[in-house]
Amino acid sequence: MKKSFIADVVTALAVVSCTQDPLERLVDKVYEGLTLEEKAAQLYGIYPSEIMVDGKVSLEKCRERLPYGLGHICQPTSSQDKNPDEIIEMVRDIQNYLMQETRTGIPAIFHEEALSGLTAKGATAFPQAIGIACTWDPEILREKTAATAKLMRATGAQLALSPMLDVIRTPYWARIEESCGEDGYLSAAMGYAFVDGLQSEGFRKGIAATTKHFLGYGGANTLPWKEIYEEVLLPHEAIIRKLGTESVMTSYDKFRDEYAVCSDTLINVILRGYLQYKGAIVSDYGSVQQNKRTNDEAVLKQCAIDALVAGNDLEFCSSTSYKYIPELVREGRISEEVLEKAVKRALMLKARAGLLDENPKLYEEGPIDVDPKENRELAYRIATESVVLLKNDGILPLSGKPKVALVGPNANSYWSMLGDYSFHSMQEFFHRHHVDPSTPEIPTLLEALNKACKGEVSYSRGCDWGSLNDAKIAEGGDARISGMEVRRIESADPTDWKDAIRMAAQSDVIIAAMGENVFLSGENRVRNSIHLPGEQEKFVSELIATGKPVVLVVFGGHPQIVEPVASGCAAILQAWYPGEEGGRAVADILTGGVNPSGKLCVSYPKSDSKQLFCYNELPDASLVAYPFGYGLSYTTFEYSDIKVQPSAKTTDDYISVSCTVTNTGSREGTDVAQLYASPLSGQPLKPVQLKGFRRITLKPGESRTVTFRMHTDQLYWWSEQKGKTVWTLTPGDYRLAVGNSSAALGQNGICTLSGKEVAKPIRDEYFALAEID
After folding, report:
1. Residue 495: how many other CB atoms lie within 10 Å
2. Each residue of 195-215: pLDDT tens digit?
3. Read out DSSP for 231-274?
4. How far is CA 450 from the centre of its chain?
């Protein structure tokens, strides 16, 4: 086996004494020894299928396609229908080629999606992000991403293209399910936990995170600068400054009048300038082309210039534009200085992941269980915490031995459990491959309810999800999606409307499992309306007309409009996409084995209005059916004895708030104590904003006190003065309230801040501390 260039560099540096940071020294030496073509090759990625024949890595194709090495292998597990052993074989063959056959010997970074866990055949499918956000439980999210990182690293990956930190301003947004909802603080807290879990073992053993999308995706790119800095930027700012992220991904969208991928404002003014971010910046898949669907070389070259000069370091998931970099550098259209910065950032990402070590550890040897028992148990716990009980007239939990009629398109379908960017979704939607639904095992609600319910469960599907007219494939964005036709998922179960209504009328209680599937929710899948799809609303209305109590269980990625049928339902559960153990979690909640504790991370919509809104602007009641932070339990909680620090100085670090929470019901339950702040003296802040939260579990009759220490930094407001960002803390009165939703804030008090206004260029602290006595 020949000795590579990278091996020579590592050996030479090992005997040289130098005060320079060792990784910087290594990256500098590697860069100096690369040819122009080899430098450019570090700045893009490809799919593994581009160098495979009949499912195997082809040495001939590697030599043809990758003569100068490669930066990244894109989506190696989600794009391939391979078991763990086959994945490891593929990774080994690709890395062996790069390390032994190319002059440089530099391995590739393998990057993958991590939204629902390791996105691979048979791997644990955790609940979708929007559901996890409804747990309001950063610790369980940290546990989930740490487990994900372990499996990703074992199967050859070093980088995750997660989490999504977009702060949402419309429930219609196609990708809302990937987000943590509409609040900047909650998104920051959950995003921080996501990244912390991924990176908890360090970069040589753990997984480096990619925070995305920068910035304003999700309906927020047209908001005022003040709202962008105070809320939309908050998750990115908190993670970059307090924790560190190894890469940042821009979006497909325009920000103001610039495409994000080549936006000087986003990349240089805000990310590199204001936030002082030093890591790699990567494109979303195909976004370097700025939504241009063309093979025109002149256009593709200009796109490369636009992106690289602006500061976008790597092009994913191809070399469509960046393959022209050597030619553009030789022509003087891209400077060596611009190229050097990008390549060194790309190499530093590899160095920090251990790929430039003398003997890098690239994967685990031996059999790997990608759905171990502990992961399934964790998926179950997350799912039970993510389900939100929106309404309950006392029908839940089911008692005795009821005769249950289970109906609806999501009653007996694993698609009700899996959101976008799960392995099944990636294969079915993006790659158009049918997959084995038994790997991993995904019990449906019907299967789980048959085991959990003491009574008789009868099933009839009754109605379909909808028609091809319920959604459209939007143009722009991911090039893999553009031009797709709307498709639908077929069910093997008969769909007999009349039979289902007849069966329901003979039951004691009806459980209607309704909502979306992967073709009605997800990237570029735009719903015409976010009412229940197709004729589901009509179907539920006929179920209600039987006179039997109806429990509506809504699956999907959007918060959906249920107002037309809500009053007729005895109970409503929002289940989101609850993952592989979601069927069991929902069944256990319905039958009382689990007490629901989920709280909404979005304002649940009441109408079809497409206007942008957020709870913190006190939107009109006609827009909101259930408020942000809301969620019922099978027990009741009382908040009392609030103590708000009556006064503080603008130079103080903290303000203290405590409140007693009592379980006034008959069973153990968990609530989420939420801290909100409101300005009372004309300070230019939103009318009400989340500033802290803490889950609290109480036995019947038990009381405990939760104490928040809110940083005064959390009350600063943004402005621009003489072209510079200024954060200001204004003295005056602030109402601080604690409750279990944004609309249940009866326990409150006033803190008066005294002293002079304080100004600084950037916030230093972002999260309140919360303790339970």
Report:
1. 13
2. 999 999 999 999 999 999 999
3. IISHHHHHHHHHT--SEEEE-SSEETTEEGGG-HIIIIIIIIII
4. 32
